[in-house]
């Protein structure tokens, strides 16, 4: 039976590479994106490589869009076993608490937390029924352990806090799944050159970042409730 995965925010960057690598591993991939034009262009590129990829329109800022996408999945793809929540946005990448504007904080939370929360709530029953896996893509910057260090290079309160909230959601979901074969965990790909950070120099390639996420998502091991990076369990 063909394995089915949904990857959000997959028309470019790490999400696109996740979709490509899953497709190359034999998965049927639903490529989730807000823009129909860019999403279909990404699908066309991957299908031209012989991969089994379809477009699923989903706007992570719209409850209506999320509910419509979830309904499509339940009705047309009931065998869904993998959800990779990759969609995200940086906010204003504020440099400090005092410089953070509420508007930018809300923008970051709307996509990075609330959108993911809404989709997870609606798909958790299906993933649980299918003994599947949910991966919430995280970041080193979500780690309170490391953010306590005032010298930490990337202290962007709006972005960091939205992803830390996502980590808290991962823990809460994992508690519900502790007696289930289904699982949920968070993965940080580490510093990766993407549009989110302006393709900053010194980061790993999108292909390398995606490989970390795909590796944990498909290794067949039990990672429920873990926060992982390339080296293993990462500090919350």
TrEMBL record:
<dbReference type="InterPro" id="IPR036291">
    <property type="entry name" value="NAD(P)-bd_dom_sf"/>
</dbReference>
<keyword id="KW-0521">NADP</keyword>
<dbReference type="InterPro" id="IPR002347">
    <property type="entry name" value="SDR_fam"/>
</dbReference>
<dbReference type="GO" id="GO:0016491">
    <property type="term" value="F:oxidoreductase activity"/>
</dbReference>
<protein>
    <submittedName>
        <fullName>Short-chain dehydrogenase/reductase SDR</fullName>
    </submittedName>
</protein>
<dbReference type="Pfam" id="PF00106">
    <property type="entry name" value="adh_short"/>
</dbReference>
<comment type="similarity">
    <text>Belongs to the short-chain dehydrogenases/reductases (SDR) family.</text>
</comment>
<keyword id="KW-0560">Oxidoreductase</keyword>
């Amino acid at each position: 039976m063909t394995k089915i995965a949904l990857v959000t925010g997959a028309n470019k960057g790490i999400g696109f590479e996740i979709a490509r690598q899953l497709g190359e591993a034999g998965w049927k991939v639903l490529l989730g994106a807000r823009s129909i034009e860019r999403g279909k262009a990404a699908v066309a590129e991957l299908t031209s490589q012989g991969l089994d990829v379809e477009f699923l329109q989903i706007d992570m800022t719209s409850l209506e869009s999320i509910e419509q996408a979830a309904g499509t999945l339940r009705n047309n793809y009931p065998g869904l076993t993998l959800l990779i929540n990759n969609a995200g946005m940086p906010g204003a990448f504020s440099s400090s608490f005092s410089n953070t504007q509420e508007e930018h904080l809300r923008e970051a939370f709307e996509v990075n937390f609330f959108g993911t929360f809404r989709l997870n709530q609606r798909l958790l029953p299906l993933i649980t029924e299918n003994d599947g896996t949910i991966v919430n893509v995280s970041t080193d910057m979500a780690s309170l352990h490391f953010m306590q260090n005032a010298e930490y290079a990337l202290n962007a309160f709006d972005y960091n806090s939205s992803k830390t909230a996502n980590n808290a959601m991962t823990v809460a979901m994992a508690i519900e799944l502790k007696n289930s074969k289904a699982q949920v965990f968070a993965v940080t790909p580490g510093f990766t050159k993407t549009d989110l950070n302006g393709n900053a120099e010194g980061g790993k390639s999108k292909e390398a970042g995606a490989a970390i996420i795909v590796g944990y998502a498909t290794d067949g091991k039990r990672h429920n409730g873990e926060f992982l990076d390339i080296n293993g369990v990462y500090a919350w």
